[in-house]
Structures are given as structure tokens and as C-alpha cells.
From TrEMBL:
This is [LysW]-aminoadipate kinase. NCBIfam families: argB, PRK14058.1-1, PRK14058.1-3. It comes from Deinococcus soli (ex Cha et al. 2016). Gene3D superfamilies: Acetylglutamate kinase-like. GO terms for molecular function: acetylglutamate kinase activity; ATP binding. InterPro entries: AceGlu_kinase-like_sf, AcgluKinase_fam, Asp/Glu/Uridylate_kinase, Glu/AcGlu_kinase, LysZ. Pathway: Amino-acid biosynthesis; L-lysine biosynthesis via AAA pathway; L-lysine from L-alpha-aminoadipate (Thermus route): step 2/5. SUPFAM superfamilies: Carbamate kinase-like. Catalyzes the phosphorylation of LysW-gamma-alpha-aminoadipate. Signal peptide: none annotated.
């Protein structure tokens, strides 16, 4: 089993990702796709007059402040436009894909975090009314049913809180938790960069290999949102996933290239 997470940043070629996945799926490989949608969510939120607000925690992690209205816009884009766009591409390629959020069948579950600490002008503020959390549990029953029936699952945040409330969760870490729960052979984290760069944005500074035990020490090279990917990779390898690859989804055959060792390989 391979878990492929494709991001939501500008430049990602979803046609290339879907064509590659479809070819491999038809060859008998079992895959699950998890996707993001941050770039499009930002655009739609601006257009709807509710611009995105990002907060940086005291430990340096950036996340989207998700009030109820933001959550609804987030669902429109992630579960609607992005998810159905990917499912349609796969259907056109002859793959019977099914798109679900982590809320459906409680595939992704975690604690609802109502407040977040945010560093603003050097001061720490507490913001309430946040609908976020972290995936702590993956309920694989529905996924197992789909796979047994020959369907390719296409999954996206939000997740469900233990009380059934929709929560915005990081897609990379959700994919990592899924890869652990399914005992996946590999987790691919595909984005609009060649992999983890030692000196971002210099693409020639690509880090090619990271020993599994050392991955957390590479957090220092990752800025803002790349940090969550490195954290997700650390969680996946600690949970028993043999290989995590940060790969490039801008063109070519993104899944095959990553599985062939291009990008940053954590093993
Ligand atoms: P996605 O939505 O595609 O999953 P993110 O935007 O969350 O991806 O994270 C990828 C982004 O992280 C890259 O587009 C890049 O701007 C940024 N980044 C920060 N530090 C690094 C780094 N050291 N190497 C590669 N990318 C980095």
C-alpha cells in the first residue's frame, strides 16, 4: 500500500499526478490519495470577503486560524472543488475513485482545539473560536471496505473531533497517520518543490537522503509549512512506515519519480 499526499500550492500538476496514479492502479498497485487545497482556499476566502488569517505558534509552526466561516469555506474548496476535481480526473482515466473527507465515517479523528497561541508583534496572544486539531486516530474500516470493493479512496481534511465537530487538520500529518494505520510501504508527500531544500528556495540544495532516525533534526531546514511535512515524515517512520519521500508534483510522473528515488528519501 502506498499513501500519496498531494499538496494544494500553486504549480502542482493534478493531471500529471492523476495520470500516474491511474496507470499504477490499473497495474494492480493499491494506493490512497490524500490532498490539500490551501492555495485555492485562500483565493476563494479573499473572493468571499473573509480573507485567510495565518497564525504562528510560539514554537514556530504556521497554521490557518479556522473560525466557523473559514471552516465552511475550507469545506467548500477541499471537499468540493478540489476533491471532486481529482475524483473526476480519475474517473475520466477509468479509475473508480471515491472522494471522502475525514469527517465521513470518522476516517480521521482527533481532539478539537478551540484556542490557539499566536505570536503577533513579538507578543503571545490567545485566539479563541478555532476549529482545528490533530489526527490522533484513523478509523480504517470504511477505507478497507472501499479498497475491497475496488474503489480508490481520495481523502481530504477536515477531520472529526471526538464529539463529531469538523476540525481543520494538517493534511501531511493526516496522511502520515493514515500510512501508519494502514502499515503502508511508502508515504509520498508531493508538493511544488523538488523535496526538502537545505537552502530554500535554492532548488540545487536538495537534500537527497535522510536516515529515518535523524529526520527530526532536519526540521531546522524547513520554514513555515514545510515544517509540518518534516514532522509528518518523522511520525510516519516512527510508526513503522519504511519510506517517506518528499517529491515534486509539478510535472512528469510525480508518483513514479518519487518511488524511483527522486526527491528527498527518508528511510
Ligand atoms: P502543499 O500545500 O503543497 O502541501 P505547503 O505549501 O504546505 O505545501 O509546503 C510546501 C512549501 O514549503 C513550499 O512550496 C515552500 O515554499 C516551503 N518551504 C519552506 N522551507 C522549505 C524547504 N527547506 N524546502 C522546501 N520547501 C520549503
Amino acid at each position: 500500500m502506498i499513501v500519496v499526499k498531494v499538496g494544494g500550492s500553486a504549480g502542482i500538476d493534478y493531471d500529471a499526478v492523476c495520470a500516474d496514479i491511474a496507470a499504477r492502479w490499473k497495474n494492480g498497485e493499491r494506493l490512497i490519495l490524500v490532498h490539500g487545497g490551501s492555495g485555492e482556499t485562500n483565493r476563494v476566502a479573499e473572493a468571499l470577503g473573509h480573507p485567510p488569517k495565518f497564525v504562528t505558534s510560539p514554537s514556530g509552526y504556521t497554521s490557518r486560524f479556522t473560525d466557523r466561516q473559514t471552516l465552511e469555506i475550507f469545506e467548500m474548496v477541499y471537499c468540493g472543488k478540489m476533491n471532486k476535481g481529482i475524483v473526476e480526473r480519475l474517473q475520466r482515466l477509468g479509475v473508480n475513485a471515491v472522494g471522502l473527507s475525514g469527517l465521513d465515517g470518522r476516517i480521521f479523528e482527533g481532539k478539537h482545539k478551540d484556542s490557539v497561541r499566536s505570536v503577533e508583534n513579538g507578543k503571545v496572544k490567545v485566539l479563541r473560536g478555532d476549529h482545528t486539531g490533530t489526527v490522533e486516530r484513523v478509523n480504517t474500516h470504511l477505507i478497507d471496505l472501499l479498497l475491497a470493493g475496488g474503489y480508490l479512496p481520495v481523502l481530504t481534511p477536515p477531520a472529526s473531533s471526538y464529539d463529531g465537530v469538523a476540525i481543520n487538520v494538517d493534511g501531511d500529518r493526516a496522511a502520515a497517520a493514515l500510512a501508519v494505520a494502514l502499515k503502508a510501504d511508502a508515504l509520498l508527500l508531493l508538493s511544488n518543490v523538488p523535496g526538502l531544500l537545505r537552502a530554500y528556495p535554492d532548488e540545487s540544495s536538495l537534500i537527497r537522503e535522510i536516515p529515518a532516525g535523524d529526520v527530526a533534526t532536519y526540521l531546522e531546514f524547513a520554514q513555515d509549512r514545510m515544517k509540518k511535512k518534516v514532522l509528518g515524515a518523522a511520525e510516519a517512520v516512527q510508526g513503522g512506515v519504511k519510506r517517506v519521500i518528499f517529491g515534486d508534483a509539478r510535472n512528469g510522473q510525480p508518483v513514479s519519480a518519487a518511488l524511483g528515488g527522486q526527491g528527498t528519501v527518508v528511510s
